[in-house]
Amino acid sequence: MKKKKIAWVTDSTAYLTQDLLDHPDVYHLPIVIMFEDQVYEDGVDLTTEELYKRLREEKNIPKTSQPSVGKFAELYDKIKEEYDCAIAIHISSKLSGTLDSSVAGKDMAHFDVEVVDSHSISYAITTLLKKGIELEKQGVDVKEIANRLREETKNSVNYILLGNLDQFYKGGRMNGAQFLLGSVLQIKPIIQITKNGEIELFEKVRSEKKAINRIIELLKQSYREHNIKQVQIMHGNTLEKAEELSNKIKEHLPNIDIVIGDISSSIAVHAGEGTLGLIWHKEKE
């Protein structure tokens, strides 16, 4: 049997659209979510609904862990029977050890894998996967595809309104001063994942309404300056707010395509219920 050319690999922090879920060459490994009494695999034996229920009911915030090196090695051992090589696109290496596990796993399996650091999370990874698959259809060489995707990471933009400051702080993603400022003064921080894949405080705003208006302004400015075809609204169990944000964007930018989706359980552990994220990609003309 002739081997297929490229397998596509990612992790469960990516938002997998139906076409990617149905794609025969796309594989993903779940992030591990650890409560004190149980260990779950994101999206496999723990749904987002179950996670939010537990987060509301329990005092202790769960921890997350990357898929093990062994899990990656097992996956690469399996797919090397069918494919010549793979391209793996993962959550920012500054936010998780997943990329390191993937690299170690492919070395154990002795399989040719181009590992790409998305420098981001969620739909930003989705965009890279879709662009890579399109380049493969055009007959572009695997190393060239990987290099182009690494360049494309610089064109991703995101702004995030956290649903739960307390959760974010206890998860070690925010320092004490920032947490105190946000909690005591009722500041709504806008955070973002920078181009090198780190979380930073972008701006402090007085209310959620003002924060939403601010990120819409940032989108409008980017839309004027760049070629933006689509914006993604990712939410933490707050579909109504996501739809309200979508409607507000449509008032200003009626021609832009809008996708609404859930953040994964492994992201929700840190960001919290009620989180809203706005993501878009600056396309080349």
TrEMBL record:
Signal peptide range in chain numbering: none
Protein's name in the database? DegV family protein
Alphabetized InterPro entries for the sequence: DegV, DegV_C, DegV_domain_contain
**Does the keyword section mention Chaperone?**
no
SUPFAM superfamilies the record matches = DAK1/DegV-like (SSF82549)
What UniProt keywords apply to this chain's record, in alphabetical order?
Lipid-binding
- Tree of life domain: Bacteria
